Amino acid sequence: DAKTTQPNSMESNEEEPVHLPCNHSTISGTDYIHWYRQLPSQGPEYVIHGLTSNVNNRMASLAIAEDRKSSTLILHRATLRDAAVYYCILGYSGYALNFGKGTSLLVTP
Amino acid sequence: GAVVSQHPSWVICKSGTSVKIECRSLDFQATTMFWYRQFPKQSLMLMATSNEGSKATYEQGVEKDKFLINHASLTLSTLTVTSAHPEDSSFYICSARPDTAWGEQYFGPGTRLTVT
After folding, report:
1. How far does A107 lie from chain B, in Å, by closest CA?
2. What pLDDT is attached to residue A1?
3. What distance in Å separates residue A6's CA from the closest CA in chain B?
4. In whole angstroms, what is the distance from residue B98 CA to residue B114 CA?
């Protein structure tokens, strides 16, 4: 399985944008890039996914490098409710997902 | 949106007893569901893939006789932890893949199991 590398933790101020990086230098041509987040004591929640082009939805934006070896999840205005562990996962969402350690995002008022 | 429920949300049981956890897809059919386990301050680890009408596929190191999975219908999968021991205490999470949308996967809220 292709691996991802994420910072262990990041901190942001409320209402500021947050850029969460993910490196995946061994990504294969068919791997989708998925982002999920998990709030304490809850199941993971889907955030966004993409293959090659940048993607936007109501929760976030996903910027994918041209060589696909890295990507960035962008939360446009962080709120306290965005404090969670964010997982960058490669693969196909219809199959079992290989969760790494993720990035713990702390949002301060 | 697609919703997956789990029951119970938390359970405490005594060592040696068995516990059943249910995973239901509420508004879609799911031939395939997945069971994960998460220990404190760790990431989710896949335990098994559950397929309706056939035997579950277990990940290496997961005892199939201890963690019994039954996918009895297109909306229900159950995980039974048999002869539970304190080391089985964990957060158990299921997910379901809609039959009409194989590119998607939806997670349940998780079940906290504590074995005393």
Report:
1. 19
2. 62
3. 13
4. 30
Q: What is the 3-state secondary structure (H, E, C) of chain B?
A: CCCEEEECCEEEECCCCCEEEEEEECCCCCCEEEEEEECCCCCCEEEEEEECCCCCEECCCCCCCCEEEEEEECCEEEEEECCCCHHHCEEEEEEEECCCCCCCCEECCCEEEEEC
Q: How many whole angstroms separate alpha carbon A46 and alpha carbon A39?
A: 12
Place of tokens 């008022």: A109
Q: What is the pLDDT of residues B17-64, one digit of tens each?
A: 999 999 999 999 999 999 999 999 899 999 999 999 899 999 999 999
Burial class (CB in 10 A: 0-12, 13-18, 19+), B95: buried
List the single residue in B43, B46, B110 with the smallest CB-CB distance to A43: B110
User: What's the order of all strands across the beta sheet hosting B67-73?
Assistant: B4-7, B19-25, B76-81, B67-73
Cα-based angle A3, A66, A95 (whole degrees, multiple of 5):
40
